[in-house]
Structure formats: C-alpha cells, structure tokens
Amino acid sequence: MRQLTSLDAQFLALESTRQTGHVAGLAIYDPTTAPAGTLTAEDLKQLITSRLHQLPPLQWRLEQVPFGLDYPYWVDDGDFDLDFHVRELALPAPGSDRQLAEQVARIVSRPLDRARPLWELYVISGLTSGHTAVLTKIHHAVIDGISGAELTGLLLDLTPDAPTPAPAAAVASTTTGQRPGQWEMLSRGLLGLPRYPLRALRAVPTAVPNLEESQLAAVPGVARLGRLAGRAEGLLRGDGNRVIRPTMRAPKTSFSGRLSAHRRYAFGQLELDRVKAVKNAHGCTVNDVVVSVCAGAVRRWLVAHDELPAEPLIAQIPVSVRTSNQGGTYGNRILLLGAPLFTNEPDPIHRLQRTHEALRVMKERHRALPAELLADVNHFIPPAIFSRAARLTFSLATSAAGRPNWNLVVSNVPGPRVPLYCAGARLVANYPVSVITDGMGLNITAMSYLDQLDIGIVADREQMADLWCLIEYLDESLAELAESSG
Questions:
Q1: Residue 406: which of 421, 390, 394, 419 has the closest Cα?
Q2: Is 140 a catalytic residue?
Q3: Domain 248-417+434-484: what homologous superfamily?
Q4: Are 2-173+180-190 and 248-417+434-484 the same fold in CATH?
C-alpha cells in the first residue's frame, strides 16, 4: 500500500461533476513501420502486458479511509482488467484533425472510474493521414509531468523492432494485493491522526512566508499574510536580498469563470528551429520565446473578442521540483508559479524582452522557495475537510467579488530529440491534453519532439467557442517575432 501525498489528494479533491483531475496525451503514430503495418488495441495490450511489471501505477486502485480521516491509499487491484482500460474506436470519414480533436474533447470531459485504476487508453483509427492516434488518459493524482513522461517512456522504444510480449497470464501474476478491509483502513486513519498537527507545526516556518505562492492565495487576506510574514522573516534573518513576489492581480476574462462539464481541444505544431532562431537573435531561452508567443496569440484572441485588459494576464507555470534520485517514484513533485503574460504589450520584441525579465525573476523565486511548499500548505487543512476546502478555494476565484490567482496555464515541456516507436509504429507527434479549473479555463502546453513543438490547447466549451484560431495565432505570433528579429 502506498499513501497519497496531500498534493496528490488535492487533484482528487478538485473533481466535481464539471471539473476533472486527469491529464492526457494524444500521440500520433505511423503504423507502416510496425511489423504488420498496423497499430491496434491488441498490439497495445500485448505491449503493456509484456512491460506491466515496470508500470506499477497502471494497477493501482484508490482505497479511501473511512470518514475521510486520512488521505487515501493506492492498493494493487487484484481484479485488474486490461481489456477495460484499453479501448478502440474509429473516426467517421474523412477523419480530419478537427474530428479527432472533437473526439478527444469528449473523452477527456468524462471522469475516470474511481473503482478501477485511474487510467484509460484509446486507439483511434480512421485518420485522413493514415496514421493511428493513441489517447492516454491518467489521473493527475498518479503522475505529474515528469513522472508521466517516465511512465509513457516505458512503452516506447528507440527502434521499430517489435517487443516480444509476455503471456497474458503475466497480468494476473503481478497483481497479488488483497483489498484491505474497512477496519484496517479505519485503523490506519486513526493511527495517522496525531501526525497532522505535528506536520502543520513543522510546515509553519517554510509555508507561511510563502503563502502568496500557494493555492490558498485566493482566500481573502492569505496573500497579504504571506507577504508580511516573508518580509518579517527577511528582517529577522538579516536577509535583505530575499526575492519578493511582484504584486500580480489576474484580470477577469471570458475564461476566468466557472467551468461547464464540457471541453474543447485543438492541436498543432511549431518548428523548433524557428523558435531557436528567435532565441539566438535576442539572447534569451526557448521557454522565453514559447511564453512570449503564447502571449501574442492570446492577445490576438482577446482583441478579436473586444476584451483585452489594460494589465497583463497571469499565467500559471508548473515547475518540477523532482530530483534525480526521485525518478520512478510517481506522484506529484511540482510548484505552481505565477508570471505575467504580457498580452497588453503590442510590440512583439518588447513583449519578448519583458517576458524574459519576468521569467528570470520567477526562476529566482523558484530557487528561494521550499520544494515541498504546496504539500506543506495543505498540511494546514485536516484531511476530513480537505476536499471541501480545496473546492472552496477555487470557488472564491470565480465569485463576483473574487479574482483568480491565474488566468491560464502556459507550460513548455522539453522532450526527446530522437525518433521513438510504440509496438514498432513510429511516433510522429505527441500533443499534450492538460487540465483546466474554475477561474483558469484555458491551458496551452507545448512539448518538444525531434525538430518540432507539439502544442495542445484545452478550454472550456462554453467559454471559448473558437479554439482553433489560437493555433493560427501561435504561428502568426512566432512569424511576427521572427520578422521583427531581422
């Protein structure tokens, strides 16, 4: 048995009939390199079966502690059913990108079944290109971006040589765990109760001075308390160089409200060489260029809808704090930092320069923050009321009087620069499909692969009706930067 951390449990707590906590990825494969020239659900099941001993999270099922006395546990699913998790469907003709995106949006809108391991995999055929799509959907309570890449990487190879599958019986042999009884789980919960006041006390010195960077910052007065505590800490330690978070307030936009139960999805690509050319011309980083390009694209959308705020938007930028010796541990080890997205800056070069400086300051804050900040802050909330408190925090951001901590997510994930294969089929593209929440109904995530940036955009279906135009705006924003760079 493996207990969820408070940060893992937070992604479960945020789920409702409108809001899901899983992440997904849309991989596009060329099946002509596979031995049979096809990639089917049966091929994927054989591949997973052969490597299931390396993929323990795929067999973890959630076990709740009675009365919510403690965080839940992962237990091995003794009735693991691979056929339930791996599914197959075909798009109707002509099988366009927009049809594929619509199917993805419908699938990711549906919550995962908590009575089973929290993942699903869909093999989607019928694409106009002749390629095969594989949509992988797994709960954020199980993985973050880095551990998710590790998990996915175990199903990929550096050559098209097909792996030798293990017998189907191997699936059953790896799941020996028995479901714990309610009395056992109640005992674990009662034994864990004395730990939480102690954890909260230990978290005070590091968490309180940094509350402004936490998920509780939407609660009135919390951000101010954190700022005052941070300044007091700096004075007591004689640290005049403490990095103070710039005051940032997220303006209201169409995608800052309460989510519906439905999603939109769009995907596309940018050439990595074009991004690097801009980076080299201005002495910045690839991430600076990506964030600035996203700012330019969102600015175009806001102008087109006559709602461009005079102040910059605030982007949530996930940052991994996973160390090299924490590889293969799964779960979540991240910080969620805020940075201004300069949608209010009309000049593309000035926008890039301001972005570069803002992200430099964000990196300095990151180095100064404790790696376990988000988990430490959660220790102030007893597990019995944790779910309600987490949902209340997000509802404050969408209330008439409240303002969201962030407007949208912008994330850039570096990926492999070598060709990869799944059951012999060559990976052509790997588009992210990430999470949106109340108050933050837009997510733009880029993932590099070979010489391209694969971009996935998720939005609330009721808040943004024309998501595909953002793919065009991203390309236009990058072209504008390239032209201005000479």
A1: 394
A2: yes
A3: Nonribosomal peptide synthetase, condensation domain (3.30.559.30)
A4: yes
- Give CA–CA dist 444/378, Å, rounded: 27
Is 476 in contact with 454 (CB distance < 8 Å)?
Answer: no
* DSSP reduced 3-state for 319: strand
Other beta carbons within 10 angstroms of residue 169's beta carbon come to: 9
Q: What is the CATH number of domain 2-173+180-190?
A: 3.30.559.10
Number of neighbours of residue 465 by Cβ within 10 angstroms: 11
Give the chain's radius of gyration (CA, Å). 23
Please state, in angstroms and rounded to a whole number, the distance separating the CA atoms of residues 356 and 282: 10
Specify the long-range contacts of residues 278-286, CB closer than 8 Å, at least 24 apart. Answer: 278/352, 278/478, 278/481, 278/482, 278/485, 281/485, 281/486, 282/349, 282/352, 282/353, 282/356, 282/485, 284/352, 284/355, 284/356, 285/356, 285/359, 286/412, 286/448
Of 134, 144, 175, nearest to 45 (Cα)?
A: 134
This prediction's pTM? 0.85
Q: CB of 274 within 8 A of CB of 293?
A: no
pLDDT digits (tens, 9 = 90+) for 446-485: 999 999 999 999 999 999 999 999 999 999 999 999 998 7
User: What SS3 state is found at 264?
Assistant: strand
- Which residue out of 139, 140, 356, 379 is catalytically annotated? 140
Give strand ranges (E) for 272-378.
313-320, 334-341
Domains in the chain: boundaries: 2-173+180-190, 248-417+434-484
Peptide bond into 404 cis (omega under 30): no
Beta strands in 300-415, from DSSP E residues, in sequence order: 313-320, 334-341, 408-413
Element (H, E) at 479: helix 468-484
Instruction: Write out pLDDT tens, residues 250-280.
Output: 899 999 888 999 999 999 999 999 999 999 9
Contact 110, 15 (CB under 8 A): no
